[in-house]
Fold each of these.
Amino acid sequence: MNKIYFDNNATTRVDDEAIKIMNEYFSSEYGNSSSAHGMGIEALETIDKCREKIAAYINCEPSEIIFTGSGTESDNMALLGYCHLKKPDECHIIVSEIEHSAILNTAKELQKEGYGVSFAKVNREGIIDLDYLESIINEKTKIISIMYANNETGAIQPIKEISEITRKRNIVFHTDAVQYIGKGYIDVKKTEIEMLSASGHKFHAPKGVGFLYLKKGIHIKPLIFGGSHERKIRPGTVNVPYIVSMTKALDVAYRDKEKNTKYIAGLRDTLKTGILDSIDNIVINTPNNSVYNTLNISIPGIEGEAMLFSLSEMGIYISTGSACSSGDSKPSHVMTAMGRSDLEAHGSLRLSLSKYNSQDEIDYVIKSLKEIVDRIRKISPYK
Ligand SMILES: Cc1ncc(COP(=O)(O)O)c(C=O)c1O
């Protein structure tokens, strides 16, 4: 059975060029970047070149890039690291209701430690309500963390406007750009962002590598302690092959950006039109201003999980709200925050595409979705 992979916001196939270069660093250029000898020096030079390239993509200084093991780690470093240098009763933080669990659960941990935490609301489109955001800022607010693009709906957030609010009030702005980097251009100077998280496996690099942009002058407490790697902020022997591979994947993503954006957005739009034309009573949860690869729909009355398993049996791999996909049948917190009814939230599906998808796959998925929905609706009280 052919695999039709429409779950690229969960993870992506590693790009061939990124695999090729990674293998060279596994088998021949495998020095430890902390070693004093020639191979060590070469490894250090290699990661510094990667740092320069990545910094150029987001317009920061190379020294402001810290390599990490994942987006989750970058998010934790940003929030815990920043807050742990402040006393709980002097520090209030704001995150949005639609953040990934890497931010939401970290904020909840801080709340347990006594830090003040407030949650910014979104409108029905899943976009941050800026007036509400301003209304929950208080004199103790030290950091605001709002994602660049949402992993479930693809909604791009008003990052520039948020940064204007944080600038005005001298609040640090962290953004989780895990679903945006490689798909859109980022300029942390123009947009005035102090911290930004990224993860390689969302843009065709391997799993287990990411980075945190940390603006010069912003201090965070390390999560772990050890040697002097990554300016002592993230000690531990540096994973040179993965960093090289992540850098190559980002090079490829930005080199081919125009071509891929057009191609993938075209596929996504045909998918959307095809679903709307062939199935009644579909709710579109992805707003117009979204990352071009994501389509989130609700089929009210049909459990997302039932759809996911039926499609999986046909070799089609998609996702429901992130909570459901881990075997927990709570409705997606993103759908709930967007004011979706219980039926709509339980029936939400995320289809996320990549450059490896084709028009034939789109046609097959539309046909299969229709077949399953028709079958379930025949025996279901909801139409
Ligand atoms: C928005 C967002 N932030 C953070 C993460 C976590 O990244 P990682 O899987 O690299 O830990 C994800 C992964 O799904 C994500 O979508």
Amino acid sequence: MAQLVQPIANGAFVLSLDTDFDGCMRLVRKVTSELPTYLANSLNSLRLEGQKTAAIEILQQFDWEVPDWVIVPGGNLGNIYAFYKGFHMCKELGIVDRIPRLVCAQAANANPLYLHFQSGWEDFSPVKAKTTFASAIQIGDPVSIDRAVYALKNSNGIVEEATEEELMDAMAQADATGMFICPHTGVALTALVKLRNSGVIKPTDRAVVVSTAHGLKFTQSKIDYHSKAIPEMACKLANPPVNVKADFGSVMDVFF
Ligand SMILES: Cc1ncc(COP(=O)(O)O)c(C=O)c1O
């Protein structure tokens, strides 16, 4: 409901199906081929045309100086391709002279692109996605797999992955600076940390981590983390409230 409440509130006609993303995707393909409905998913190349403006905005915000790396969380893999397309277009137009190296960051629980990259781009196999806090990228059979591979090969790109513990710790670490990020952004931040620690991303490199959703859509995961209520997770950056009796003396005792 946290994800659905915005279209519901805006008056959309919403169907809730008892399946995962890949199951919905299979049905959506069928339904849109039978009915004159407009598909706004990234199967529709017009959606990607719109998404590529994010690449142009990054370049503009960097005063047209190309960052060395752009890290994007990936599930259905439309975004990573759209970023590539946007950067490539700016290069073709002569606005910039190179494009950033792209990093696609996946949740280890839904990592078909990561496995494909690790195999040296050998045969691609979809996976059955396991549950991840980064629920928007809980996808085992990405629609835009070929586009993503093309984007990564042509940008000297890399695929990284983040375990549930890594992505939740990264989210908590970012939030502690005053941000309020979503778990997908935690996946991308984990990729940055791993690539920086392994020396792939150099200290002087400029890297952009794309934040794809607002943390307010993922408050339950943050509540569980800070309550240390996630099974088999240390939640080492949890910052739970101190329970204090509602009297002046007890409150003062906490401070002194
Ligand atoms: C919050 C969030 N993060 C990341 C993504 C990943 O984009 P893609 O599925 O195009 O790889 C999506 C896609 O809808 C998303 O909603």
